[in-house]
Structure formats: structure tokens, C-alpha cells
Amino acid sequence: MPWSRNTTWRQGSVLAQKDFQALDLTNVPGTDLAVAISHDCDIANDNLDAEPAVEFIFARILEQHNGNYTHGKNPRTLHLDYTHDEKLIYLELLASKRVIVQKDKLEAVQPDETYKLTHSRQILQSWLAARYRRHALPNSLVDRLREVFAYIENKGKKNSSGILSFRLSYDPEDELLTEEPYELWLNIVYITDKDEYRIMSEQIAQNLRTEFPKLLEKTTDYGKVILRKCEAISEMEFTLRDMRETVEYHLEHLSYRTEPSGPII
User: Fold this and answer.
1) Among the four 37, 97, 121, 153, which has the fewest Cβ within 10 Å?
2) Which tens digit of pLDDT belongs to each residue from 97-108?
């Protein structure tokens, strides 16, 4: 039957591996299933001239998630909570492993309803969007903060279960000559599930304030950065205004520079 707005496919729906062949999806080693990532409105649209296909991303089932890839911290890899027959599981999604499936083929296949996306649907949407909206930092700022970012990344990976994100703002937002300083504000946003996360984040903030001058000494030839603030803040206190006025530091952040020598922080 033709594609209908009443389709059972939704964003987050799972395409079982057993149905890959029917959709000509072959030669995808290391893949257990695929997840629909098109928006619900686009999926439901029965005007196939306007929306002829549904986008999927291949995924594999994990026994345990890695905190470095939860909550959309990494723009290339996401570990996402699902349930399978009401049992909690984790799926690994790689941003590069996407495929387009035409609706006129997909209409013959039903989603595997034994898989359910949990409350983490918003995380999936944010992660998909972040790949295109993440902020590129000025080269001159990246050069000055190279050791600081390495320090942040090290602490972030070691404490990934409790840290939601590192947020920063800086002034000015342009490239600067070496003799001109940047001003920097840093927030460590922590998850409120356990009080130990607060204690851990506050300790990281304190240590970073202490280490900041020493870290900058290693890149002093590139110019100065004045640290105006570095503090831990809970996810409950971090506001939408704070989000608008700051940049999220991803573990794979890029500067504007695009040549091979450009820093991948």
C-alpha cells in the first residue's frame, strides 16, 4: 500500500537487521540494526515529491555505555539508552554511518517494536543537530588554550559519568594578534543525580583555576588569555540564557583552521 501519514515509523524507530536485505542494505559489518533519524513530520509526510525518503543511522548494541559518548558530548559518536523487551540496553550510533531509504521501499517493512527509545529522544535530537551547529573557535584562541583543552579533555574523560558539559565564553570573538589578550569564562556543568558529582566538579574547577597559569606558560608564544571565571554549576542552575551565551566544548572540537595541521582538540 502507498505511504501514509498513519505510518508506524517515527524518529527513533528501529529497523531490524533481518530486514536489511529487503531494503538492499548490505555490506554493513559490525552493525546490529538501524535507527530512523528523520523528524516525525518528515517521516509522516505522504508527499513523496517533497519527502521521498527516511534517513537512518546504523547502530550496534553495547553491553555497557561509555560516559564520554553519552548526553551528546561527542559530535561523532553517541551511546544512547534503549529498552529491548523492557530490558535496558545501549546503542552506539556513529554520525558517519548514515543511509537514505526510499519510502516506496520502506512501506513494506515495519519497525521492530521490541526496541523502544527511552526518555533520551531529546538527546538524540540534540546530538544530530550539534554536528552542524557546533561552534568553531578562532585559531588564535585554540593555540593559546591548547594545554588547557588537553587538561579539560583529560578530566572530562576520567569523570564522564558526572559531567554534562564544559561551557565557555570568550571575548572578543575574533582572531587576535599575539599581543592582544582574550578573556575567558568557563563553566563545568554537572549532573545532579549524585552529590559526589558536585564535589568532583567543584574540585576540577578549583584545580583548573590553580593550574591555568602554568598551562598557559606552555603556549605563551601565542599570546595571553585572562581567566575571568571558572566554576562548577549544576544542570538545574544552568539556564537557557547561559546556554545561548556560551559555547559547548566537545571532546573533538575544531578551530576554523581546515588544513591538516589544524588542531583537533
Assistant:
1) 121
2) 999 999 999 999
